[in-house]
Write a structure and sequence with these properties.
single chain; 249 residues; alpha/beta; D-Maltodextrin-Binding Protein, domain 2; 2 domains; 5-stranded mixed β-sheet; 9 helices; 10 strands; globular
């Protein structure tokens, strides 16, 4: 009986000590968040992480309207920098990863054609993230314009709210998509072989996708938020991100 009481008291103590942090995460990172959380919990088992996924633009808008988020992991540096300049962040944002674009289809194509593949008559729909709210969508438009293909394919474009929604469009309806390369490293997507179903977009066609992280004002006194922020910039998280298709900062 005494042992049972001791166990209960230990569990209650752990619960009382636990701190939960709300982390707003750009949709492209959704495919690797479970691995990142598992690694973080090895060092900080007393902290609970609640992940809120969405397009970077929408998450930033929610933060400006008072959403109770502690950390913002964006898909670019512009949105977190703007939040910092408005006094909503603690310290300047830092780059935690660099993303890249890839062509992806559930059907085999000659991926060596590059952007010209998208102009093919066999391609009727091209899924990308909404360029107004998703940095990966904006990068896709930039790549299309730089390759002089935009005018030829603009009527084929279908827009997902986020990168993950664009991936869903390709899996179920669109002929091809320009998505985050990292999405193709998730276990569910590994059946699609590179050079047969996907290939990276020439990185010279778009500006580097530098993804920023910032601790928000709400969490300025939260040790758990500081711990997670430091973890994301540390070697263990960086290794996981690199193994998941991201470029190192």
């Amino acid at each position: 009986m005494k042992i049972h009481v001791a166990v209960i008291l230990l569990l209650l103590g752990t619960l009382l000590m636990a701190e939960r942090i709300n982390v707003a995460v750009a949709a492209n990172v959704s495919y690797v968040m479970d691995a990142l959380k598992q690694e973080f919990y090895k060092q900080f088992p007393e902290t609970e992480i609640r992940v809120i996924l969405g397009s970077t633009g929408k998450l930033a808008a929610q933060i400006q309207h008072g959403a109770p988020y502690d950390i913002f992991m964006a898909a670019n540096m512009t949105y977190p920098q703007t939040l910092y300049e408005k006094g909503l962040g603690v310290g300047k944002p830092q780059i935690y990863a660099k993303g890249s674009l890839a062509y992806f289809s559930v059907h085999e194509h000659n991926m060596t054609q590059g952007m010209s593949l998208l102009t093919s008559r066999s391609i009727h729909t091209i899924a990308i993230a909404n360029p107004k709210t998703a940095p990966y969508g904006a990068a896709a438009i930039q790549a299309l314009r730089a390759s002089h293909c935009y005018e030829a394919v603009k009527d084929k474009l279908v827009f997902g709210e986020s990168v993950s929604q664009s991936v869903a469009y390709v899996l179920h309806a669109a002929d091809i998509g320009i998505i985050a390369t990292s999405a193709l490293y998730s276990p569910k997507m590994q059946r699609f072989r590179q050079k047969r179903y996907w290939s990276e977009v020439d990185r010279t066609l778009y500006a580097p996708i530098e993804q920023g992280i910032i601790v928000l004002k709400r969490a300025q006194h939260s040790q758990a938020a500081q711990d997670f922020y430091a973890f994301m910039l540390g070697s263990r998280a960086q290794h996981i991100l690199h193994q998941s298709g991201y470029l190192l900062p």
